[in-house]
Amino acid sequence: MEDVLGLFDSIFKSEYGDLNLLGKLLKIIVIFIIIKIIIKVSGKLIDKTLRNKRISHIYSSDRRANTLGQILLKIVKYILYFIGIIIALEEFEINTASILATAGIGGIAIGFGAQSLVKDIITGFFIIMEDQYSVGDLVRIDNFEGFVEELGLRVTKVRAFNGELHIIPNSTIQVVTNSNKGDMRALVKVSVSIDEDIDKVIKILEMACMDIKSSNENITDGPTVLGVTDLGEYNIGITIVAKAKPDTQWSVEREIRKKVKERFDQENIKLPYPKTAILGGNEV
Amino acid sequence: MEDVLGLFDSIFKSEYGDLNLLGKLLKIIVIFIIIKIIIKVSGKLIDKTLRNKRISHIYSSDRRANTLGQILLKIVKYILYFIGIIIALEEFEINTASILATAGIGGIAIGFGAQSLVKDIITGFFIIMEDQYSVGDLVRIDNFEGFVEELGLRVTKVRAFNGELHIIPNSTIQVVTNSNKGDMRALVKVSVSIDEDIDKVIKILEMACMDIKSSNENITDGPTVLGVTDLGEYNIGITIVAKAKPDTQWSVEREIRKKVKERFDQENIKLPYPKTAILGGNEV
Amino acid sequence: MEDVLGLFDSIFKSEYGDLNLLGKLLKIIVIFIIIKIIIKVSGKLIDKTLRNKRISHIYSSDRRANTLGQILLKIVKYILYFIGIIIALEEFEINTASILATAGIGGIAIGFGAQSLVKDIITGFFIIMEDQYSVGDLVRIDNFEGFVEELGLRVTKVRAFNGELHIIPNSTIQVVTNSNKGDMRALVKVSVSIDEDIDKVIKILEMACMDIKSSNENITDGPTVLGVTDLGEYNIGITIVAKAKPDTQWSVEREIRKKVKERFDQENIKLPYPKTAILGGNEV
Amino acid sequence: MEDVLGLFDSIFKSEYGDLNLLGKLLKIIVIFIIIKIIIKVSGKLIDKTLRNKRISHIYSSDRRANTLGQILLKIVKYILYFIGIIIALEEFEINTASILATAGIGGIAIGFGAQSLVKDIITGFFIIMEDQYSVGDLVRIDNFEGFVEELGLRVTKVRAFNGELHIIPNSTIQVVTNSNKGDMRALVKVSVSIDEDIDKVIKILEMACMDIKSSNENITDGPTVLGVTDLGEYNIGITIVAKAKPDTQWSVEREIRKKVKERFDQENIKLPYPKTAILGGNEV
Amino acid sequence: MEDVLGLFDSIFKSEYGDLNLLGKLLKIIVIFIIIKIIIKVSGKLIDKTLRNKRISHIYSSDRRANTLGQILLKIVKYILYFIGIIIALEEFEINTASILATAGIGGIAIGFGAQSLVKDIITGFFIIMEDQYSVGDLVRIDNFEGFVEELGLRVTKVRAFNGELHIIPNSTIQVVTNSNKGDMRALVKVSVSIDEDIDKVIKILEMACMDIKSSNENITDGPTVLGVTDLGEYNIGITIVAKAKPDTQWSVEREIRKKVKERFDQENIKLPYPKTAILGGNEV
Amino acid sequence: MEDVLGLFDSIFKSEYGDLNLLGKLLKIIVIFIIIKIIIKVSGKLIDKTLRNKRISHIYSSDRRANTLGQILLKIVKYILYFIGIIIALEEFEINTASILATAGIGGIAIGFGAQSLVKDIITGFFIIMEDQYSVGDLVRIDNFEGFVEELGLRVTKVRAFNGELHIIPNSTIQVVTNSNKGDMRALVKVSVSIDEDIDKVIKILEMACMDIKSSNENITDGPTVLGVTDLGEYNIGITIVAKAKPDTQWSVEREIRKKVKERFDQENIKLPYPKTAILGGNEV
Amino acid sequence: MEDVLGLFDSIFKSEYGDLNLLGKLLKIIVIFIIIKIIIKVSGKLIDKTLRNKRISHIYSSDRRANTLGQILLKIVKYILYFIGIIIALEEFEINTASILATAGIGGIAIGFGAQSLVKDIITGFFIIMEDQYSVGDLVRIDNFEGFVEELGLRVTKVRAFNGELHIIPNSTIQVVTNSNKGDMRALVKVSVSIDEDIDKVIKILEMACMDIKSSNENITDGPTVLGVTDLGEYNIGITIVAKAKPDTQWSVEREIRKKVKERFDQENIKLPYPKTAILGGNEV
To answer: Nearest residue on chain E to G109, judged by CA atoms?
Structure first.
């Protein structure tokens, strides 16, 4: 043991016990070889882990698993190379720490400035990994609603109903509301005159509902007449709800509205005009 | 004593009194063995503590206790391995502190960026541990209301009434409003013409309330007529309240409304049309 | 003196003047014994201090004093054990500071993340110690109003009127509005036609107030007719106020309203229908 | 000189030139004696300073000066004892700095958490010292209005008009609006029909004002008729203002309103009913 | 040179080359003498600078210059004494830095807590130096409007129109709106029936404006009729503007309004009653 | 090896083994030469990378690639020169780190102050690189809407419809809404009397839509009649939508509105006047 | 070489190899001479750079270039003197770093407090350099609109339309809206009865537009009739737009309004009175 170390010393160490130039170069080369190996191994490990998970059906598609794998590998790569360069620089007595400390004032500014960039990527990573939404989903983020057109690590692009394109940095995304993760509710509020017979009105509405149910295949549940949901000054409010496939709820609502109007016309049910009682001069 | 230490020194220490390569490796191995043991012991301790608590009925289900146990164990594991690796690296004179200090600018950015991730997990941990809500509960978080569909360490998924899925990072959760932690109130405001006899109206309403009480088994308390809660320009407002089982309060309200309308029709109680007194030209 | 120290040295110090293994172990044991003693003494001191205060009637109940005492003792305990462990680790040359510094990036993130947890506990501590509210009080915190159901170090649970349970982290509590710390005001605004004689109306209202005063024992002061508080286009607003026991103010208001309506019907005082002057074609 | 120091050395210093145990204890005792003396002197100084100021009438009461003196003295005391303990601990080679540094992660969290506590006390101190409000004053802080019931270093308690008690942490207090620091304005807006003669109306109002002035001793200035402050579609707005003693402005307003109504009835001044011009079928 | 230094050394330095007690005391005395001199010189310099500026008419009054001078001198004084004390303490081996570092946790809290106090003073200093407002000015700060009653380094006191006193910490002051820094605008919007002849109405208004101009000496410019500023459903809006001396704009507006009403009555210009076209049953 | 190093030592090192003046100067010159070379190489690399990407059509224009290349090169340049100067200063024993540390207080202030400047540039860089918007696009940023007139690294200038120029610092830009990234929706809501036959109305509207489709070439899809989207008290709401080229959607909407009005006039479809039912004295 | 250095050493270095008093003074003098030279050179460089840019017409006036030059030179000056003083103090073993570190608690507070001052100046610098607005421009900053009266490094003074002076710290300025950077839009919305013939109305409006175009020289483009922009219940909305020189858009709007009213009177176009259909008792 002692011998090997002695030999090592005689070649790579200067007389003061420090490494000499050759030793330093060798050390750096060894470090970079180790880094290369770690990267290779990490790549294998990441790939294997993701594939295992994929089998357990957490990730819905190969594409997502591949994207994640590449991102993780890139991060590992950059960090390791960065560490390698720092070690190399320090070997040649360029005190990187001191340089960066000196640059500290700017550093704080940059650190804070870059902060939202980092937050963009972290949030983006979780959105992809947790499958919060995919391209084509109808989502609402803060006040921006529309169909997802592009889903990146830094920004999400959402196409609004009126054609505008919202470009949303992922760091500003907090609560995501996704309308493509299950059946949607169609809701129609009907208002009739307070003088109508409630039971009759509800029966007519229920018949209308049955008509629609049989004819519209987008409806997955209902429509159902809930009952008296409002008791106003000159009107009775009745609510009808149904479940429909995503993105079809509005056309279902339109159909219910049209059918109700037609039925009411047939059955002569009056809608509630605003009413006012006028008091003449003598009464006041 | 001295002898043992002397022997120890001769094998594992270099001539300068430092540990030699063999000594270092041994030290690292010893450290990792100790870490392994601590993890094992921690697992036992966590499990036992949770089981004790479970007996005292704080945790409503085995499932919750197990989840918590696994989370705590994972955290202990990661922290101990991390410490082990740092010690190992330092033994081989790779100054990790300096590397990380050099990476400080990025570090600040990452630290701030990752901050909300940590907050997600801490908040999520407390929500689970304190049983603030469970899957299926009707909750309101900020302005997002609906039924809890999934309750994770990082996000909570809430299904809105209209079918939308709100994906809420736990770090944004402050006040949680849970509607499944007891009986809910059903409240109906009735408005009658100012010309009606209040005592008679209240008596009619009380009779309607008794009818409903006997027929609806979701009602746990009431309904009760509170009295005159509003004295408007042409109307008297009277309020009816009841207690109902969670998620049934709306159907109870609908039934009260319908029953009141029917009773009023029978008893010929008038609802308050808006009234206006008209002054002719001469009076003005 | 010298001798004792010399003896001490020969047993517990190695040849370089440092403590040897035995000395280190002894030192650690001594430290932990001292810690144990400090904890015992602290417990006594805390208990005594709180009992003194209790005598001076600052704390309304034994229960509160005990709670506080246990919290303080726990904090003292955790801090002292923590210090003991650090000292012990340092004795065996495991440089804890360096490990934690290396973990600094994560540390900042955790520090910021845990910040609101600490704030929860500090705020909770003050709420309990200052007796800001107790279980059963009607409070309003931010926009969340209801009866306090549970008051913990981390969260406060408030039951809303409509049955919902608000779970409020103490750190989000700023201004607390407590409605159980004294008599509450009942306030009824009455509006009469501008053609009425004000003095007569006020006299009638004052008589109604006297009726209520004698019959309702929840009223602690008043009701009093304040006078003309609004001079509208076709109405005169008059305000009646009373003081009532906490949580009874609404029923007092309802009673005043009912009594005023009955009196007005008897005395034939008209309420202000909206009035409009109509100008015919010629006048315009 | 040399001799004294030599003697000193031989007793209190160990052979390596450091202080021995005896020396250390002595040093600590001396430090604490000095601390005691400084506290005594500080107490005297604070008292004297405040008494000087009191003479110059800055502090309205002895009570305030005493409160301030005690607070300042307590702060001085805690800081000095804290410093003393640190020095003592360091003498016995318990490296407090390192312990606290190790506890740094928690420290940041605690520091941030305790931050609002410190801000509470600083703000509270200034409120008392600057006499921003006293117990009994009517104040508005943020949206919380009422009479100050208690004024502490950490919280201010404000009793709202409706009986609720607002408990406001001083750190959340920014702008304070105090209604007891001078005469308050009473303001009544009167609206008459656009067909009236303005000069006549103003004369009547001025006469009403003079009546009130002579009869109400709470009024310190006015009431004055300002003139035409609004020119609406069917009404002329005229404003009356007066200055009244604090907390009496509302009763003054009520009296002005009542008197104006009576005068208008006597003089047959019409109030402005809403007017609408109706256009028949032919005109449209 | 060498000799003098040698002599110096023999008296004030101990055998190890450090300063002895005498030397230390001397050093401290010298430092405090230097500090005294610097303060004196600073006082002179500040005074001279301000006096120079005063000549160039930047500071409107001697009082302001004196206030500023005293503030600056106080700051210089406190800083220098603080430095002096630190140096003195360090001479006697009381490591202040370490004490304060140990107190760091509290320090962060205090630093953050005191932050708004420092901001108060910095903002206050600029408000005074830049003459943003003086006592008596009518200002609006955030939503708090009124006359400045007191202008201090830490708070500004503003007396609202209704007699309330707003106590505003300077740190919360951002945009200041000052209404005493030039002539103010008086603006009256007149609305006439859509059936009137615009040219005639404008001519009448211009004549009214000329009347007012000649009689009111507070008006510095105008009043001018701007023209048709609104074209409503049954009315034409015309706007009149004038410039008036600060605080007189409201009385000017009231006078314009009164004069316009009188002129319109003389010339029989109709104001716009709301008009509605009624459609009978057949037309609908 | 030894020899060369020896020679080197004899010329450039002082007797204490440090570099002498000559050695220092030489070292600095060498460093700056290396910096020059790195800058040159970086320029080549950046240029090549961007050109590669340009081929793969990520960057739509040469101009953008050139802009980016120049920015990156400038950043590399400034950083390298900065490092060079620091190294040079340190060679001459001017401890830059200490100077800057001393200037730390100001440094923190400057760091925080400059923070938004850095954020401006980072955000600006991403806007350009990701092609979020170009000059001439119609965008909405926060509440500021208009056409982009200038797109810089620090600010974006947006010309509002009414001619105002919004100068927006890039750091305040979060979500960007771009209206030039695809076809825009034109939407017209039509309201007809509730007495009309819905099927007939829809048929008429569909015919009007077909007319417009054939005549207007800006329309890319539709217009389509969606159906009954509102069921009011006296009106039926029907919605028409179309897709149009960017910036033409408003003229398309205006054309649809005009055409619908003309068709309705021809077919005698009545629009919904507000209707009120009047109840005479006896009914009430 | 060696000789010169030897001579140097003998005069300016003490026996321990440090600089002696003479050497220190000399060093300080040399440093300040170098500083003086750097300032001079910087002044020249700044001046030259700005003059070059001025030629390339980036800076619209000599005045701006001079202002910028002086600001930059002042900053360079203060920084260099500050560095000089620090170096001088350190020479005499007054450890400035330690003093300032000790003052760190206050330092943090001051740093944060002064932060907005620094931000004021940085923002002010960019506003001037980028020519965002000049004195006399009509701007809107946040909610404060008016004409710029003064543009300083720390505050901007804006004179509102009603004569108030807004004093805005530059640090609070984010988006600046400037109304003097191009032609402004004049926009008039005209509403006619739904019974009118649209084509005829549009023709009349277009003729009115042509009249105005020829007579008003402030108009740079239009006025143009856009078409039917609103289809209400009893009215058709038509919009007219024009481009006018800055600050003349309101007078242009007023002229368009007046001309339209006159034309409509001539052509007997009716404006839309609100219409209501009345349903008698039998119909309901």
So the answer is: E115
Closest chain A C-alpha to C38 CA, distance in angstroms:
43
Any chain F CB within 8 A of the CB of B102?
A: no
What is the distance in angstroms between the Cα of E188 and the nearest Cα belonging to chain F? 26
Q: What is the pLDDT along chain G (284 residues), one digit of tens a residue?
A: 455 555 655 665 655 555 566 777 777 788 788 888 888 888 888 777 766 655 444 444 555 666 667 777 777 777 677 667 766 766 665 555 555 544 444 455 555 556 677 788 888 888 887 888 888 889 999 889 999 988 887 889 999 998 899 999 998 898 999 988 888 888 988 888 887 888 888 898 888 888 888 888 888 887 889 888 888 777 888 899 999 888 888 888 988 888 888 888 888 887 777 777 776 544 44
Report chain G residues whose CB lies below 8 A from the CB of D284: 193, 270, 273, 275
Residues in Cβ contact with A55 at an 8 Å cutoff, skipping those fewer than 6 apart: none
Q: Give the pairing type, strands G138-141 and B144-151.
A: unpaired
Q: Is G105 on the interface with A (CB under 8 A)?
A: no
Peptide bond into E169 cis (omega under 30): no
pLDDT tens-digit series, residues D30-85: 878 888 888 888 888 877 776 665 544 444 455 566 666 777 777 777 767 766 77
CB-based contact (8 Å) between A135 and chain F?
no
- The SS3 of residue F168 is strand
Tell me the pairing of strands B155-159 and G138-141.
unpaired
Residues 171-210 of A with CB under 8 A from B: 174-179, 181-185, 187, 194, 198
F78 — pLDDT class (breaks 50, 70, 90) = confident
What are the φ and ψ backbone dihedral angles of A221, each rounded to 5 degrees? -155, 135
For the cut 60, the answer to whether the pLDDT of residue E97 exceeds it is: no
Window 210-249 of C: residues touching B by CB (8 A cutoff) are: 235
CA distance C276 to chain E (A): 11
Cα distance between residue B194 and residue E270, in whole Å: 38
Q: Please name the chains neighbouring B, where neighbouring means 3+ C-beta pairs under 8 angstroms.
A: A, C, D, F
Give the count of Cβ contacts less than 8 A between chain C and D: 163
Please, what are the domains in chain G?
9-102 (1.10.287), 130-178 (2.30.30.60), 184-267 (3.30.70.100)
CA F112, F113, F116: angle at the middle one, nearest 5?
90
Bridge partners, C230 (sequence order): C237
ipTM above 0.95, yes or no: no
Which chain F residues are within 8 Å of A277, Cβ to Cβ? Answer: 278-279, 283-284
Report which residue type is found at F15: E
Instruction: Write down which chains contact chain F via at least 3 CB pairs under 8 A.
Output: A, B, E, G
F116 contact residues in G (CB cutoff 8 A): 119
D168 neighbors D157 (Cβ within 8 angstroms): yes
Q: Is D128 helix (H, G, I), strand (E, B) or coil?
A: helix
Measured between CA atoms, how close is F95 to chain B, in angstroms? 19
Residues contacting E279, CB < 8 A, separation 6+: D281, D284, F273, G275, G276, G277, G278
C274, containing H or E segment: none
Mean per-residue pLDDT over chain E, rounded: 77
G101/E97 touch (CB, cutoff 8 Å), yes or no: yes
pTM above 0.95, yes or no: no
Strands, E, within chain B: which ranges?
Answer: 138-141, 144-151, 155-159, 165-169, 176-178, 184-193, 219-231, 235-244, 275-279
Query: D97 touching E, CB under 8 A?
Result: yes
Question: Token pair for residue F220?
Answer: 């890319």
Element (H, E) at B113: helix B104-129
Give the residue from chain B lying closest to D277, CA to CA: B281
**Cβ atoms of residues B213 and B219 within 8 Å:** yes
